[in-house]
Specification:
Oligomer: single chain
CATH architecture of the largest domain: 2-Layer Sandwich
CATH superfamily of the largest domain: Histidine kinase-like ATPase, C-terminal domain
Order of helices and strands: HHEHEEHEEHEE
Radius of gyration: 19 Å
Helix content: 40-55%
Number of strands: 7
Structural class: alpha+beta
Largest sheet: 5 strands, mixed
């Protein structure tokens, strides 16, 4: 995963450089403006990828701060141009970097799904909430769009389910004409199994 992230970041940097060079060579202010927008969008994609990189060291981080950074990058890269507002309500929450990374991957996929399926070109809002609940963490991603009540699980939701299992959590989803809601509940700490000899 780290090697793949490294390669993708390098390719994005090359694309950004090529676009910047083309903009500098162009004599048209319209072309320069369009290329500047493309370059800005690619920078936002790179920010998302950097935030979602596999943590190099096992440490504890503030999940609220991590999600703020991730949601800001998602908003810039995917939502703002479609008039979708991302609202974040999180409380400071110390969590292992690996569990926080998995949470980030899940939130990214759920927010992306809302943006892709719930609004059909209309403006709207997506909410991301995170709070402690005893020995558990609860995270809700919801929107005010319109979604079919029966959603066919694609590759993204299959990956989300696998990530939820890695967190020893559960995910409950509901879809309908008043919006969709996904509630993830998982323990703060990874479950450790005792061996009996």
């Amino acid at each position: 995963m780290q090697e793949l992230s490294h390669r993708i970041n390098n390719e994005l940097a090359s694309a950004i450089n090529a676009i910047s060079l083309a903009a500098a060579r162009s004599g048209s202010s319209d072309v320069k403006a369009v290329l500047a927008n493309v370059s800005e969008r690619l920078h936002s994609y790179a920010d998302v990828l950097r935030t979602l990189q596999v943590p190099e060291h096992q440490t504890y981080i503030d999940a609220a701060q991590y999600l703020r950074q991730l949601c800001l990058s998602i908003s810039r890269s995917k939502l703002e141009s479609n008039n979708i507002r991302l609202v974040l309500a999180v409380r400071p929450l110390s969590m292992s970097s690996e569990r926080c990374w998995r949470l980030g991957l899940i939130v990214y996929e759920l927010v992306t799904n809302s943006a892709r399926h719930a609004f059909n070109g209309t403006e709207g809002e997506v909410w991301v909430e995170l709070w402690p609940a005893g020995h558990f963490v609860e995270c809700r991603v919801s929107d005010n769009g319109t979604t079919r009540q029966r959603i066919q699980h694609g590759r993204g939701l299959t990956i989300v389910q696998q990530l939820v299992r890695c967190l020893n959590g559960r995910l409950e989803q509901s879809f309908g004409p008043q919006g969709s809601s996904s509630i993830l509940v998982f323990p703060f700490q990874a479950l450790r199994f005792r061996r009996s000899f």
